Amino acid sequence: MDRNVIGLLVLASFIALGSIAAGCTDMPGTTSADSAPVEGQETPDNRTAPDGSVAAGNNRFAADLYRQLAGDPQYAGQNLFFSPYSISSALAITYEGARGTTADEIGSVLHLPENESLRRAGFAGLDAALNSGDANYTLRTANALWAEETYPFLPEYIETAGRWYSANATNLDFVNNPEASRQTINRWVEERTEDKIRDLLPAGSINPLTRLVITNAIYFKGTWVEQFDANETTEEEFRVAENETVQVRMMQRTDEDAVYGYAQTDTLQALEMPYAHGNGTELSMLVLLPKEDNLTAAEEALDAETLAELRESLVRERVRVFFPKFTLETEYSLPPTLAAMGMPTAFTGEADLSGMDGTDMLFISEVVHKAFVDVNEEGTEAAAATGVVVNLKSAPVEDFTPVFRADHPFVFLIVEEDSGTILFMGRVANPESP
């Protein structure tokens, strides 16, 4: 089994977080008047997200981003792990301030619903579902805006971010104190991810030209319905290549109560391991395991239709499960990746984020994402955060440095500096003549 399968195994868990619910009737961060049902708002679906919904778009983006990262030479042979919902949330708030080509590209890459009501209510409903609470697990997500205190953002943009995405704005002094501002934002992320995501914004990512930072944080901790017995965990080999193995701590459930949702095709096995829950949203980890060592079979199943068919075909039955313990920590700077996926304009001087401030002076300077996951006998702890840094475009600096190119006839003088007396004078018409 290729080493990248570890990243794929847990990718499914955060895909599940993006599709566990398609909405609810109360929107976070609104008044009772604001929380009335909205036409087009998504409703929960236990198996598949309806086409055109925020959840369906998020899942399509998840598969697209996975393929982009998996095909990037810099990640060859490496584990992958990210939260598509965290990235989608932060960029959806960015999209609300984008216009023209910039908005078209972001919307296309994220597969956002074109209908404004469906898009906004969809994100609000998903956020409400994810934050609804459950006695058996912890799951929460949060958005925030961090604005330069002297910069005049449009009130309607700030209101939209707050009402539909619960992204309330906090003013910071990016101009005079960018480092302290960076630390403030990072502390917010750490607090909302139980310190699992630290230093989201790296040193130097915030500078005096920064005008806005959009953040999302998501955190999950849950226990398996069918927990593994730590006494049964043993050291076993894990194939990372045809003739290469590593030692891992392999958990196992082989008893009569090891009943899971299970399905198989000619090329892969699918296993659904549910997390304990009360009255809240049901969560599970969906594992796609190729029957051969080649990951292609599992990666090809990531398209929305195939994944939905697999989930529909799951049948609860006894399964002898052997699954490795692992902990992953990943970090991505996403501008090159997102540009390659189809949204290059937002990162250039041609960016149009005029919906934020009414000008064409802003662009995205960075999209940073960090993720963490720990899978053990008891369950899973996972966290991720995304930061979108919006900077002021550097004004074109006119070069007033004189250029003196003596490539044509000229006069010259030799002058005594104190008195200004001309001691010699001449003209050069042809430097090659005597």
Automatic annotation (TrEMBL):
Query: Which InterPro entries does this entry report, sorted A to Z?
Result: Serpin_CS, Serpin_dom, Serpin_fam, Serpin_sf, Serpin_sf_1, Serpin_sf_2
Annotated stretches, region: Disordered: 31-54
Entries under SUPFAM superfamilies matching the protein = Serpins
Task: Quote any Pfam family the record assigns.
Answer: Serpin
The Serpin domain covers: 63-431
Q: Which family does it belong to?
A: Belongs to the serpin family.
From the Swiss-Prot or TrEMBL record, give the protein name.
Proteinase IV
Name the species this protein comes from.
Methanoculleus oceani
